[in-house]
Design brief:
Strand content: 5-15%
Distance between the termini: 52 Å
CATH superfamily of one domain: Amino acid/polyamine transporter I
Number of strands: 10
Radius of gyration: 35 Å
CATH topology of one domain: Amino acid/polyamine transporter I
Helix content: 55-70%
Length: about 750
């Protein structure tokens, strides 16, 4: 008969004394003895160590209770705190992977140190504002790329008016979000504000829009940064996708190291870019005003976009305006990340947002004005910002170090601007997971207090976008503004309703300000959806409802689980009813260990032996062996004939019959199981125990307990092998294999 515990294998037909060398077990005894009288347990659950010290006088005793016990520290009655020592890997492979992980990500940070991971205003400007500041590098260029379709006259007459409109809109949005932070000092991103004031469905719409925006931010910023690089080194152009993917991985690893660490890494490039652009604007305006250094003579690249013959129509002007509105991307990031600031959080967040708004407006205005005055024409070979720097800064010794500096700083800020999305995408995912609209895993913080699941998910989605669109910034831009302005509009509309409902002092002024923000961003949203629909905006309009449906499906699942959970009833004093069942094939040390364990927990233990029925003497032979090895009354023996040689069916049916007799009892099935000495030897076993566990997994009112035994002198080595398998990073390996498969499909098919 097939053994439910793999006992039919030759490995189990061994002397009882050889079994259980890895686990402490009653292997030396051949029979089960009656249990001794119950004794008081000397185990201290709180792990306290008590030392009695004799005093100098008779009868004097000093009792010393240690608060530190191995890797645990007692923090109070029934409260232990685990140290980093408990997280140490226990196998050689585990220690190697742990060292590699800590080399890349760093040592784990305690939750108590989270306040130290908060951002100062200086670092917050680099971490949370790099997206908004870096948008200056390509916002003006996107305006010119549309206007060039209508010829030189459109460039000359419409660049400044469109730029002025974007400046006004940027000022309105920044001021509106400062009001949002004041109203939601604990963090008031688009999702929270909209859900709080307009309802769940609008809130999910805002969340879906902003998640798409963050994903596009990574793809657009990194693609634009690499575009600045091949302005300097044209030979890099054929490898732009590979370089973009490598940068995505580097930025993800930097963010897995924690928010403060990311601030340390990204602060320098951000301020280098701000200084360089402001210096370029100041020097260019100075030369235009004074003529110092001679007239500014613009020399276009060898290849520029040809002037088109389209009429200067309203549609073209609106399309140029919406393309330039990419300068507003990232403005909402600070309102999402208020809790990342050092106290007082709200005040520091509002101040940083004001500094970011003034800096962005100054840089965008200056770049747009210089592009207009110099007559810059967009080109696929060189960015507009690079052309301005090449024209404004003079050559020094036959080279242009300032032009080189601007391009390097631009490439760095654009690449690292993705950090804004890596900061806020995981945080928004956390809020959604907390409310049950995303998987619970997204609320988990990793070793460095970063939301690891959100960071990894964003990396994968951005990499897919870069591959699909070939790292082309212009192809990605049309998808960009729809999600951004959708979340802007919903958030500002939610603030209008909040002011109307709460009516605090000054509510009329605040409502007017947020209402103006909602109106202007709503108009831009409509214009963006119409003008960019055929250029790719339709993808975002389709994705938003799909993502909302996904949110609702996840939430519905969690609600069903909550409703189906049994009502919480306080534990009552007194014994509980448990029935223990131990499947038995042969009476050896493995089986005796399981029986001994079961009877230590309950006086109601039943051993079940399945008979094939082919040998008529098997019943009596097994019974005699049972009486010799198990002379205890706490365990009953039931033998079941199975004429059809089935194991699982008769055993499960017997458990069902027991359950019907006592529906209030909890059935506990104790499975003795042998683990092979080598993993590949599992293929030589019939896996009956595994199949039985799988069959019982979904059975209600049933508990399955496994009693493993490892055989032979290499039991400890066997345990190490299984530990290595358990600690192997299967998840990262699966991601790597999937990435290689995608790369193969894209580049080699």
């Amino acid at each position: 008969m097939n053994n439910p515990l793999d006992d039919d294998d030759d490995e189990q037909n061994i002397p009882i004394e050889r079994v259980g060398e890895r686990h402490e077990a009653p292997t030396a005894a051949v029979t089960l003895e009656p249990p001794p009288p119950a004794a008081a347990s000397h185990v201290r659950p709180d792990l306290r160590e008590v030392e009695v010290i004799q005093g100098t006088h008779p009868g004097d005793r000093l009792v010393r209770v240690s608060t530190q016990t191995g890797p645990f520290r007692r923090r109070g009655q029934g409260l232990l705190s685990a140290s980093l020592e408990t997280d140490q890997a226990r196998t050689r492979w585990g220690r190697r992977t742990q060292r590699l992980r800590r080399l890349l990500i760093g040592e784990p940070i305690s939750t108590e140190q989270s306040i130290q991971e908060r951002l100062t205003n200086v670092k917050a400007l680099a971490v949370l504002c790099s997206d908004a500041l870096s948008s200056i590098a390509y916002a003006t260029e996107e305006i010119l790329r549309v206007l060039v379709l209508a010829g030189a006259a459109a460039l000359a007459s419409l660049t400044l008016p469109i730029g002025l409109g974007i400046v006004v809109l940027l000022a309105i949005v920044v001021t509106s979000y400062r009001q949002t932070i004041a109203a939601y000092p604990q963090g008031g991103g688009s999702y929270i504000v909209t859900k709080d004031n307009l309802g769940t469905l609008p809130g999910l719409t805002a969340a879906a829009s902003i998640l798409i925006d963050y994903t596009l931010t990574v793809a657009v910023s990194i693609s634009a940064g690499i575009a600045a690089l091949y302005s300097l080194f044209p030979s890099l152009f054929p490898y732009r996708v590979e370089i973009c993917l490598a940068i995505v991985v580097l930025v993800a690893v930097a963010n897995l190291r924690g928010v403060r660490e990311a601030g340390n890494i990204f602060a320098v490039p951000t301020y280098l870019f701000i200084f360089g652009v402001l210096a370029m604007i100041a020097y260019g305006l100075f030369r235009l005003a004074t003529g110092v250094g001679g007239p500014l003579t613009y020399v276009p690249p060898s290849e520029v976009l040809p002037f088109g013959g389209e009429p200067i129509a309203v549609f073209l002007v609106l399309r140029a305006f919406t393309q330039g509105c990419t300068a507003l991307t990232g403005v909402e990031a600070i309102s999402d990340g208020v809790t990342a600031f050092k106290p007082p959080e709200a005040r520091n967040a509002r101040l940083t947002l004001l500094i970011m708004g003034v800096t962005s407006i100054t840089m965008f205005s200056g770049v747009t004005f210089l592009a207009h005055q110099l007559g810059i024409v967009p080109s696929d070979q060189e960015t507009v910002l690079s052309q301005i720097a090449r024209t404004v800064f003079p050559s020094v010794g036959g080279s242009q170090p300032f032009w080189f500096y601007i391009n390097i700083a631009t490439a760095l800020i654009l690449v690292l601007a993705a950090n804004t999305a890596f900061s806020d995408f995981p945080r928004l995912s956390y809020f959604l997971a907390r409310d049950g609209f995303m998987p619970r895993q997204y609320s988990f913080r990793g070793d460095r207090l970063a939301f690891s699941w959100g960071i990894i998910t964003l990396s994968i989605l951005a990499a897919i976008l870069i591959i699909v669109f070939g790292g082309d910034t212009t192809a990605l831009i049309p998808l960009y503004t729809v999600g951004v302005f959708n979340s802007f509009t919903l958030s500002q509309t939610g603030m209008v309703r909040r002011w109307w409902r709460t009516r605090p002092p000054g509510w009329q002024r605040n409502m007017l300000l947020n209402g103006l923000g909602a109106l202007t961003t709503g108009l831009v949203l409509i214009v963006s959806a119409v003008t960019k629909f055929q250029y790719g905006a339709w993808i975002v309009l389709v994705l938003i409802p799909v993502i909302i449906l996904m949110f609702m499906a996840i939430h519905r699942h969690y609600e069903q689980v909550r409703r189906q959970e049994p009502a919480v009833v306080p534990l009552q004093p007194g014994p509980r009813k448990y029935t223990f069942v131990v499947p038995v094939a042969r009476l050896n040390a493995v089986t005796l260990r399981a029986l001994d364990y079961a009877r230590s927990l309950s006086p109601h233990v039943t051993a079940v032996h399945i008979l094939e029925g082919e040998d008529p003497t098997e019943v009596e032979a097994f019974k005699r062996e049972w009486e010799r090895l198990v002379p205890v009354r706490e365990i009953s023996l039931i033998q079941i004939e199975s004429p059809y040689r089935s194991l699982l069916g008769p055993l499960l049916s017997y458990i069902d019959a027991l359950d019907r007799q006592n529906p209030d009892d909890t059935i506990t099935v104790v499975l003795p199981e042998v683990l092979p000495s080598r993993p590949w030897e599992y293929l030589l076993h019939n896996q009956s125990a595994l199949r039985l566990k799988a069959a019982l997994l979904f059975r209600s009112n049933t508990v399955v307990t496994d009693v493993p035994s490892m055989l032979g002198p290499g039991a400890a080595r066997t345990a190490g092998r299984w530990m290595r398998l358990a600690e192997f990073p299967w998840g990262p390996l699966a991601v790597l294999v999937l990435s290689l498969f995608i790369a193969y499909q894209v580049f080699f098919r």
